[in-house]
Amino acid sequence: MAIKELDRTVQPNIKPVSKINIPKPEIIELSNGFKVISAKAGSQDLIKIEVIFRAGTRYQTKSLVAKASISNLREGTKKRSSKQIAEELDFYGSFIEPSINRDFASVSFYTTGKHFFKSFDVFSDLLLNPTFPEHELDIFRQKGKQNLLVEMEKVSTLSRMGFYKALFGDNHPYGTFALPHDYEMIERDDLVNFSNKFYKGKGGAIVITGNFDSEQLDFIKGSFASSRFDGQTDEEYILPRIKSNEKKIFTYKNEAVQASIRIGRIFPERTHPDMPALQILNTILGGYFGSRLMRNIREDKGYTYGINSFIVPHSYLSVFVVSTEVGNNFVEHTISEIKKEIQRLKSEPVSNDELNLVKGYMIGQVLRTFDGPFAIADSLAGLFEYNNLDFDYISNTINTINSVTPEQLMELAGKYFDTDSMVFSVSGSQIPDGFTQNTF
Amino acid sequence: MIDFKRFRLENGLILLVHTDYSTPIAAVNLLYKVGAKHENPEKTGFAHLFEHLMFGGSVNIPVFDEPLERVGGENNAFTTNDLTNYYITVPVENIETALWLESDRMLSLAFSQKSLDVQKSVVIEEFNQRYLNQPYGDVWLNLRPLAYKVHPYRWPTIGMSVEHIQKATLDDVKEFFYGHYAPNNAILCIAGPIDDVKALELTKRWFGSIEPRNIDRKAIPKEPEQNEHRRLTLERDVPFNAIYKAYHMCNRMHPDFPITDLLSDLLSNGRSSRLYQRLVKEKQLFSSVNAYITGDVDEGLFVLTGQLYENTSFKMAEEALNQELEELKVKLVKTDELDKVKNKFEANFIFEQESVMVNALNLCYYEMLSDANLLNLELDRYNAVTAEDIKRVANQVFDVKNCSTVYYKSNLINEN
What we know:
Chain A: This is Insulinase family protein. The structure holds 2 protein chains of 2 kinds. By secondary structure, chain A is α+β, with helices and mostly antiparallel strands. Chain A is 41% helix and 19% strand. Chain A contains 15 helices and 12 strands. The model of chain A has no long low-confidence stretch (mean pLDDT 92). Chain B is an alpha+beta fold. Chain B has 2 domains: 5-208, CATH 3.30.830.10; 230-410, CATH 3.30.830.10. Chain B has helices spanning 46-53, 65-70, 95-107, 113-132, 139-147, 162-167, 170-180, 196-207, 257-268, 274-282, 314-330, 335-352, 356-369, 374-383, 387-397, and strands at 5-8, 14-19, 25-32, 74-79, 84-91, 186-192, 230-236, 242-248, 286-293, 301-308, 403-410. In chain B, strands 1-2-6-3-5-4 form a 6-stranded mixed β-sheet, sandwiched between helices. In chain B, helix 3 packs parallel to helix 8, helix 9 crosses helix 15 and helix 11 (314-330) crosses helix 15 (387-397). The interface between A and B is large, with 77 and 79 residues.
């Protein structure tokens, strides 16, 4: 039998990807209202626990209080000093990661199964019995202020802050951000009150993944059914309405050799029926390496090291953003090219070839979101936070990816990709035409 | 324990296969034994520029990313002073697309003036974005040539200056490619839900016919011993002062390497570490402080960095750091504290092994050092470190004559 000559110009047969194995987690509700979401996954001796509170920045009435509360949990308990907490966790090779967004605050805990019980004792102690020592808060204030001052030397930070300011105005809970002097204003009582009020079972969740056994799982559930998380409060916060209108703001940064650009608008919440298809449009525009924006601004023109677009989910809406840093001389041309690419989505149907490419890429991405315990934990937390654990969301997304037509996408682009209702924020050393000067 | 099988193709390509059925994703990692240290000092930045060009299309495939994205794959690459590493993750059903793409760009690139011009300009924007337009971003552009006088670690992977990138011609680029990118200068690892028979068959199919090349192996000069404290002050428009201290240390294969690594962990791995507890929390001299090793293959650097508070003078900062180093030189570390950093190392090691991609990368890296199986011996090497070892190496490394110090001085705050 003759050996077939290798034809390197032809891609090897494209094989369909076998069914995506979405782990079905066990979900129960504790007596205090905490949802416990657990999924066994992974091959190593690891456990990850994430405790999620409905206690993001939009619940705070004073800047930084939500962040300071979640960050300072590990700075002292009734039984342990900040140093002891650090010593013990480090000794067991475990670590914790506080995080905060507009809607939720969470603490993630990573441990090996080998040291599970001893290190979990520290984790539950800091969640249940924090004392927020004044001295530790003082260090938080100093460090936080200094770090923010350094961050604000970056054009990317300034344009992001300008973008949110223009998009939401100064008073909307989704638009505010801390300024350096805010660090001086936070007090210990703010943290105590905020955590007492918002670190509650009702509306919160615990996501457990990795190689846990039933004994460990029961132990975790037992610990969180405790009295501190008594599930009394779940205040509904009605968010003010926002009207998106074209705004162009510029923030000056001395001697910047590049300018940072952010363009975007408000999109619907993640559960909205248009969202899966909007994700596809976003991917085509700037959501992957081969996207139209990357090809145009980086690979064709060489104006930037990178450009991308993304959709940031919040509980009641999401935000669509195009983001890049370009040489000073390329700012105006880059903005007009971005507008042109956005316009193209509305005026010409995407080719079947490009659409198939994006479908293949996105299916791979969905597969990756369930690859390994950490990825699974993130997906489950995301599903809880933004889709109320609607597991159909994933299959709906896959169905939309597989079935959407170029015409449907173009129609949807007409509905959402209107550059006249977008906000433009630039930070750099030269003000572009038509922009208003902004300061922080 | 990471199981693997090793094969060597006739053209010199080494293949490592790690089978893991717990994931639907396969990783394809290709390490080329070429990094910034193999560059001509007159033409630096080439290995990294190449990383960009390698995505600009190869001899038979006009666009690299597109066919891979079509099958759900994702890829990227990084360049260090020692090596260049290209990696792909792809649903295992379509692993052949990944091998087809990697083998074609090993065969030859589609060298074009347009691709070169665009990537030169992208790299220059990368240089601006990462090194010039960030507070403290240019410190390594200055610290490297202070610490290294002879060894090519004296320039960063992005290159000594943008001029080298601007001047790169198509001929330069071709010469660099054929001198370094070859099956006999590469290590491939396939990891994921695939057995070694299948992996070998596919590798032979796509890589087997690529001819070996003459590898451009110039001797790399050894950095002479440093025998005076070197100092440099940089004045910049940054909001706070910062300090950087770099000490020469042993190479990656030296028996002291794990000791030196744990030494840096004692100082700054985790919130209970000495520098964080004493200098950030107790003395409140720094807003952040860090100690780490560069981990280079040849003799690397042990680095201490700290960002100062407005009321902290450089003198206070430096004395506080020196005091910590001095203590390691005279006092034996307690067993508990040493056990702690060993435990932390072990946990991190396990965390990493959750990813087939990291396993593939690590296997290639250790194979480049000498043998992929070293990865499986690493924990033992770290666990064998004693308190006496720590003290001995601290005395060796933390010698003031072996140190290069940079004061990164803020123009925006008052003299102190």
